[in-house]
């Protein structure tokens, strides 16, 4: 894109507007962007129920739920620091103390947007995360 707005900025604005208007809710994945990019997140059997694993390089939490796996960005929506999961399942950013609830909604501090959730799948006994497939939190 030209004229002073980046492609990423444009896509972010479109996704925000779509989320506010509820567009794409029935499709589940509403932020596929330029396609799919699945990354491995380990063997399913390596997770215990309720466990959240941090993939620090990818700034990503993968969480095992009763019904399967969920993946949430660990990248603070303020300036991008990796948020720390607390014992109660909420998240705290160590940089400027933004907090997020267990569903990633911003609850305090300078961060003005919630954390992003990604599409997951299990295949061949392993977990994969589509880091281009943004979904609503369950
Ligand atoms: S980077 Fe997280 S609060 Fe500033």
Tell me what you see in this structure.
This protein is mainly β and 138 residues long. The protein has a single domain (30-135), classed as 3-layer Sandwich (Rieske Iron-sulfur Protein), CATH 2.102.10.10. Helix content is 11%, strand content 35%. The chain contains one helix and ten strands, in the order αββββββββββ. The chain has one helix at 7-21; strands at residues 38-43, 52-55, 60-65, 68-73, 84-85, 91-92, 99-100, 106-108, 117-123, 126-135. The strands form two sheets. Strands 1-10-9-4-3-2 form a six-stranded antiparallel β-sheet, with no helix packed on it. The longest helix has 15 residues, at 7-21. The radius of gyration is 15 Å and the shape is globular. The model is unreliable at 10-27 (pLDDT under 50). It binds FE2/S2 (inorganic) cluster (FES). FE2/S2 (inorganic) cluster (FES) binds at residues 76, 78-81, 93, 95-96, 98, 109-111.
Q: Could you name the key traits of this structure?
A:
138 residues, Rieske Iron-sulfur Protein, six-stranded antiparallel β-sheet, four-stranded antiparallel β-sheet, 10 strands, 35% strand, binds FE2/S2 (inorganic) cluster
Brief summary of the model shown:
By secondary structure, the protein is mainly β.
